[in-house]
Every structure is written in structure tokens, then in C-alpha cells.
Amino acid sequence: MTTLLWIILATLVSGVLSVLAAGVFLALPTRAREAALPHLVSFATGALLGAALLALIPHAVQGAGLENVHEVGIALIAGIALFFILEKFLLWRHCHDDHCSEHPLGEREMHGHDHHDHGNAHDHARKKASGSLVLVGDALHNVLDGVLIAAAFLTDVHLGIVTALAIMAHEIPQEVGNFAVLLHSGVSRRRALLLNLLTSLTAVLGGVIGFFALEKALMALPFALAVAAASLLYVAVADLIPGLHRKIDPRSSVTQVVLIGLGIALIAFAERHAH
Q1: Of all residues in the chain, what percent carry a pLDDT higher than 70?
Q2: Quick one: 250 exposed, middle or buried, by C-beta within 10 A (0-12, 13-18, 19+)?
Q3: Entry pTM
Q4: Contact 83, 231 (CB under 8 A)
Q5: Which of 104, 159, 161, 182 is most exposed, with minimal Cβ within 10 Å?
């Protein structure tokens, strides 16, 4: 096979298989899935933090070189600002659809709304926004994975295959986290699977881009990695962690800490064995 065909096949198989492996969760009965969902949100928090801080940012710094660490930091800050603005837009759109915009006290009383109603609607909008944000971040991450796979195949076919397998192993725990975020945001199981499959196909796009414009892609890669890391950090810190703090009983708190640690540990394990 030609190198381009190897790249397309590897990115397609790696992306689709990682999503399908993570999608086993969707086969659980409704009661078991609802019981497991809060735990998966905790796991998702750890997986997103681990992917950003243990994989994406170190790779960004390594790729840019120590002399460009400051620029990587700027890209990270710019990414956080970008996703803050994006979430503002998504919140505005969903709040407009759900009629959850804030009103003065007198106006709330006039229309028969209370603070609790608007708080619930705003929380619902934030859940929707977090699902949209994680899809954007995952699509960008998959594009970059495709570029990395292309770079490996252009070096050596065997290295490309090993890299694709390592990336697939790295993606499975993160895709489980993505499913948890999407289900937490109110997306149905079937739609969550479809959306994750579609975002996984962006790895093929990244592979093709990497093949035809490798030098330019690799020059921009460290800074794009920083932006991808920013998206994962933002979802974990701004959207998921505040929800975890709503359960403050000792048992739930200990479970959350353990599952966050497990999510981080699995990403660290996958990242270590990818090298």
C-alpha cells in the first residue's frame, strides 16, 4: 500500500475502534447506566485533566523547545480565552432556547419565574455547552493525532502502525470520558455514539493534512496542542468539577477523588506505554 493509504487506514481504524470500545458503556441497562453516570463524570474529570497536563502540554513544550515555552503558555491562555468565549456563546444560545436569561426580581415575579427555575435552566444550559465544548476539543485532538500518525508513517510504516495502536490505547479512556460528558449534557446514547464517531473521523483529516503539508503542520503542532489542552482543562475545571462539589457527603467525596485519580492514572499509563 502507498504511505497515504496506510495513513488513512490507520487513522480510520484507530479512531473508530477507540470509540466503539468506549461505547460498550452505552449497552448497559438504563438503571445501571444512570447509576454509573455520576462516577463516569468523576472519571471524565481525571481523564481530561490527565490528557491535558500529562500528554498534550508536555508534547507541546517538547515540540516547541524550551526556548519557546513562553509561546506555548500564550497559546494555552489564548485557548482558554477562546473556549470561555465559545461557552458564553453556547450558553446564550441554549439559554435563549430554554428561556433561562436572567431578569430583575420584579420581572421574574411578573412572569411567574423564581430564582430556582432560572438556576435549573442555567445548569441545564451549562451541561449542553460542556458537551459541545468537549466535541470541539476532541475533534481538534483527533486532527492532531492524525498529524502525528502521518509523521510516523512518513518515517517508517512499522513506526506508524505502533504509533496508531498507541494512540488508540490512549484514546479509549478519554472517549469513555467524552461519553460521560455528552450523556451528562443530556445527549441520547445513540446520538453520543454518532457524534463521537464523527469526531473520530477528523483524525483522517489530520492524517491527510499531515501527509501533504507535514513541515507546516509540525511547525504549528505544539501551539495547536496547547489549544487542545486548553479545551480539555476548561471543560474539566469550569464545567465538571463544580458539579462534583454538589455532593459533599464523605462517601461520594471519597469516590470522586478515587475515580478522578483513576482517570489520571489510566492516561498516565497509556502515555507512558505510548513511548
Answers
A1: 79
A2: exposed
A3: 0.64
A4: yes
A5: 104
Amino acid at 217: A
* Closest C-alpha among 137, 140, 132, 161 to residue 149: 161
Residue 106 has pLDDT above 50, yes or no: no
DSSP state of 240: I
Burial of 21 (0-12, 13-18, 19+ CB in 10 A): middle
Q: How many CB atoms lie within 10 A of CB 57?
A: 22
53 DSSP 8-state letter: I
Distance CA 262, CA 38 (A): 14
Give the residue carrying C-alpha cell 481525571: 46
What pLDDT is attached to residue 103? Answer: 43
Show the cell assigned to 128.
Answer: 449542553
Q: Are 210 and 149 in contact (CB under 8 A)?
A: yes
* Average pLDDT across the chain, whole number: 78
| C-alpha Rg value of the chain to the nearest Å | 20
- Specify whether the CB–CB gap between 63 and 222 falls below 8 A: yes
Assess contact for 180 and 43: CB atoms under 8 A: yes
The single residue listed with the C-alpha cell 502525528 is 148
The model's pLDDT over 34-70, given as tens digits with 9 standing for 90+, comes to 777 788 788 888 888 888 898 888 888 988 888 889 9
Residue 156's φ and ψ, nearest 5 degrees, are -165, 135
Amino acid sitting at position 274:
A
For 77, half-sphere exposure in the C-beta direction (CA atoms, 13 angstrom radius) is 6
